[in-house]
Amino acid sequence: MVWAMIGRFFTILVLALAWTASAHAQTEGRPARVVVELFTSQGCIQCPRANRLLGGFSRQDDALALTFPVGIWDYLGWHDTLALPEFSERHRSYTRAMRARRSTPQLVLNGATPLSASDWDDARAVFNHAHERGMPASAPTLALRRQRNGRVTVEVGAGQRDGAPADVWLAAYDGGPITVFVRGGANINRSVPHYNLVRRIDRIGVWSGEPATLQRARCSPKCAAILQEPEGGPILAATFID
User: What total of structural domains would you count in the chain?
Assistant: First the structure.
């Protein structure tokens, strides 16, 4: 009887340790050499093709490609079903910082280079150049970890920092494709695909040069961390988990 009780105790202990180890197992993010953001709209006639271009970029292992739907053309008869106000604000921040015209389909590479997504050859050439150049050599380390229970940790290493603190962003996105059948506006009766569709993006903290650790309860199904100059400035580093 005593040995049976001891056996059950050790069985429970082993299961508890296994559960604890599983709960604390981590998935590590991988660094991105280039971040490409597409601002798109279901009410834009050229955007479905641009969405497919972004899907092509997303298949490159060391590229972080993200889709941000915006409601810039809602007044033409179809309200974008995936647009969020914070996406439009991010778009405006870029156009203010770069003194560029706000339009769709618009790509922004590494937070510094705006260009139209209508010309695939030009977009690929600029993408390849940004990918070859990579992130700034002076950027601090940026790590992203997700535990089995979904909790995520972002760690920014120490580095030289002058001026205003840099922003730390956390983006949850869906690889897709997410397809929307449009029933009005310029793309009436068309199925519009979306790849690496951002569901939520939050500014979770700042970095002033000292090491920083930030945590959130969840970031799924896919997750990316971005370190960026404030007010829509250049991206310093990025990492992501598929």
Answer: 1
What is the DSSP code (8-state) at residue 189? T
pTM above 0.85, yes or no: yes
Model confidence over 79-91: pLDDT tens digits? Answer: 999 999 999 999 9
Residues with Cβ within 8 Å of 136's Cβ and at least 6 positions away in sequence, in order, are 234, 236, 237
- Dump strand ranges (E) for 24-151: 26-28, 30-31, 34-40, 63-69, 106-109, 113-116, 142-147
Phi, psi of 68 (to 5 degrees): -120, 100
Q: Is residue 25 in a domain?
A: no
pLDDT at residue 106 tops 80: yes
Q: Which of 107, 127, 91 is nearest to 51 (CA)?
A: 107
The whole domain housing 180 covers: 31-241
* pLDDT score for 24: 53
Query: Which CATH number is 137's domain given?
Result: 3.40.30.10
The verdict on residue 91 lying in a domain is: yes
Residue 89 inside a domain? The answer is yes
Comparing CA positions, the residue from 2, 61, 16, 55 lying closest to residue 34 is: 61
Q: Note the pLDDT tens digit of each residue in 36-82.
A: 999 999 999 999 999 999 999 999 999 999 999 999 999 999 999 99
CB 167 within 8 A of CB 206: yes
Answer for the pair 238, 64: CB distance below 8 angstroms, yes or no.
yes
In a domain? residue 169: yes
Chain center to CA of 79: 23
Could you read off the pLDDT of 17-28 as tens digits, one per residue? 334 444 457 899
